[in-house]
Design goal:
This protein has 211 residues and is an alpha/beta fold. The chain has 2 domains: 32 residues, no CATH class; 135 residues, Aromatic compound dioxygenase (Protocatechuate 3,4-Dioxygenase, subunit A, Sandwich). It starts with 8 loop residues before the first helix and ends with a strand. The protein binds fe (ii) ion (FE2). Fe (ii) ion binds next to loops.
Length: 211
């Protein structure tokens, strides 16, 4: 992966050494020191979360899960898809599935289920509605299955800091849903638009580990 200057991350670090932005003070070789530096800077993989019983294969390829006139709060979800070195992954398959705004999964069809079209840039985005609550689960959530060549599949779930279950304090209350093992999966919600045309927007970064 190249940055805007056309240099790889390693080349940028080597340039930093050459220009004095990084000074190596050690008995090890510069290559070993730079490798250790890169490893210390690793991005944390996105925490996994249960697949759940409602996954269906062969979801349609679309980024628009919401149909015109669907009730519920319109929701846009977007994010980068990275590896643990922080480099964007362009060839990733992201599948998402969720309930409608009342907490119902479409078990017969494919409403609110999608395989997102890869945009080749290492970013993803889809349009949906805020999922509802349902009796077997405490919190609103969207399921993810993310696959990329050379990387471990990621099964996880996205949660919303606005969920009433958290009472406005997800730092303290995130584990009121016993399936939420990581606070990182509870994402802030931005409200955008005007009061007549408001929608929610959430950013959820996906970081995959190499096999
Ligand atoms: Fe679920």
């Amino acid at each position: 992966m190249l940055d805007s200057s056309g240099l790889s991350r390693r080349e940028v670090l080597q340039k930093c050494v050459a220009l004095g932005s990084i000074t190596l003070i050690a008995s090890q070789s510069s290559a070993a020191m730079l490798l250790a530096f890169e490893e210390k800077e690793l991005h944390k993989p996105t925490p996994p979360n249960e697949l759940g019983p409602f996954y269906k294969k062969r979801a349609p390829q679309t980024a628009m899960l919401r149909a015109a006139g669907d009730p519920g709060m319109p929701l846009s979800v977007s994010g980068q898809i990275l590896d643990t070195r922080g480099e964007k992954l362009p060839n990733v398959v992201v599948e998402v599935w969720q309930t409608d705004h009342l907490g119902h999964y479409d078990l017969d069809g494919y409403r609110y289920r999608a395989k997102l079209p890869a945009d080749g840039s290492g970013n993803y985005k889809f349009e949906s509605v805020m999922p509802g609550h349902y009796p077997d689960r405490v919190c609103q959530h969207i399921h993810y299955l993310v696959t990329a060549p050379g990387h471990k599949p990621l099964v996880t779930q996205l949660y919303f800091a606005t969920d009433p279950v958290f009472e406005g304090d997800p730092d303290k209350n995130f584990n009121r849903d016993p399936l939420i093992h990581s606070r990182e999966l509870v994402r802030p919600v931005m409200l955008v638009g005007d009061p007549k045309d408001i929608h929610a927007a959430v950013n959820f970064e996906l970081c995959l580990e190499r096999v």
